[in-house]
Design goal:
Elements: E1 7-11, H1 15-27, E2 31-34, H2 41-50, E3 58-62, H3 70-80, E4 85-90, H4 98-106, E5 111-114, H5 121-136, H6 143-154, H7 163-169, E6 192-193, E7 196-197
Parallel strand pairs: 1-2, 1-3, 3-4, 4-5
Antiparallel strand pairs: 6-7
Helix pairs in contact: 1-6, 5-6
InterPro entries: CheY-like_superfamily, Sig_transdc_resp-reg_receiver
Biased composition (Low complexity): 161-175
Domain Response regulatory: 7-130
């Protein structure tokens, strides 16, 4: 009997982070459902449960989502839907302190992960998906599948924190007028000696 495919509900503020997560999860045969950041996830889970729909196995939520308390959502899932695991991300941070991570876990999150960076994308993906597959109880991470999606992910222009973003945000060159020709030199003053120029 084949294992039931796992489903992840993805809520990310940053489009690059969403693209990386979506491609990476799909590379591991995890079904991805992307939701807008303004959706009330608690109400959504309640409606899905009431309608008899299968709840996602994992919710990956960006802490930068406006109008949402990610820790309250973690506590809600832990109390109301213990089979729905929550993985928090922070698209505004490239590093997470140990105290932030401990706090997130104490609130019911499985982990708190930093934003993906293009300079260390493969390492970041292996770390994030290693944690994700462990939470979902999946077999070992398919690193070869991750490596295959890297070139496409790195083609993404204007990645936060990259040189491409700096180039994209640089002001467009302006057309300037050619410099005016130099003004003619004023004639040198004549010197006089005893009333006569020399």
């Amino acid at each position: 009997m084949a294992a039931t495919p796992k489903t992840a509900l993805l809520v990310q503020v940053d489009s690059f982070q969403a693209k990386v997560w979506s491609a990476a999860l799909a590379s591991q045969s995890i079904t991805v459902i992307q939701e807008a950041t303004n959706v009330d996830l608690g109400v959504m889970l309640e409606q899905m449960g009431a309608a008899g729909l299968t709840l996602p196995d994992l919710v990956i939520v960006d802490m930068a989502s406006e109008g949402m308390n990610p820790f309250a959502f973690c506590r809600f899932c832990r109390n109301q839907y213990p089979n729905v695991k929550v993985l928090l991300t922070n698209s505004t941070q490239t590093q997470i302190t140990e105290s932030e991570q401990r706090w997130a876990i104490s609130q019911g999150a499985q982990d708190l992960l930093p934003a993906f960076q293009t300079s260390s994308l493969l390492t970041d993906l292996i770390t994030a998906l290693g944690q994700t597959t462990q939470v979902l109880g999946l077999p070992i991470l398919d690193q070869q599948a991750l490596i295959q999606i890297l070139p496409k992910l790195l083609e993404t222009p204007a990645v936060p924190g990259s040189e491409a973003e700096a180039v994209a945000e640089a002001p467009a060159p302006t057309v300037s007028q050619p410099p005016a020709p130099p003004a003619p030199e004023a004639p040198k003053p004549q010197r006089f000696y005893r009333g006569r120029p020399y």
